[in-house]
Amino acid sequence: MGKDLPLSPPEPAVLGMDFAGTVEAVGDDVTKFKAGDEVYACAGGLANLQGTLADYIAADAKLVALKPKNLSMKEAAALPLVGITAYEGLVRSGIENGDSADKKILVHGGTGGVGHVALQLAAKHFGAKVYATCVGTPEQMELIKSLGAQAAINYKKESVEDYVAKYADGKGFDIVYDSVGGPNMLKSFEAATLNGNIASTVSLCELDLTQAH
Length: 213
What we know:
Elements: E1 18-22, E2 38-42, E3 64-66, H1 73-77, H2 80-92, E4 104-108, H3 115-125, E5 129-134, H4 138-146, E6 151-154, H5 160-167, E7 173-178, H6 184-191, E8 192-200
Parallel strand pairs: 4-5, 4-7, 5-6, 7-8
Antiparallel strand pairs: 1-2, 2-3
Helix pairs in contact: 2-3
């Protein structure tokens, strides 16, 4: 995290936000967890909270959850912030409004860290029809389809106009989840339907929005 971010912990600091581990002890008011529980969370590395890259940490129980039994510690430790980012972006974009099965979702960067989780949540949890862009290697195209997308889009070969016509009836996608950012945001505006929603997970940048009209 950069020093300019207002929520960065003071130096010297322990880095890291996500973790997975085993509970060693709990506070007097904690009833959800006990010693020996396997848990995971995004619970450090911000404001006055030291990070999670340590053998032991003190974590707020409200930020912690039991680790799913089908995930290894390594898998669980990689998921919290990514999962929160993907889920919140979709929900705040209105994926739960009305019938999710009727919605068409475009995920930019469908094989990226956040993108591939957003793809799976949109398709498998919310039941929407999901399409995702990628560089277009055979491995990436296959991965996107295996994660539940209706189709993988090679953004280097297909223009926004082409894949909107092909997959969104020429009208645009109900939600565009942009995990790429920068100039790609203009493609997100172009791909969204009238009154559609766009979620971006990437840092702030300056864009000429006149090109979107």
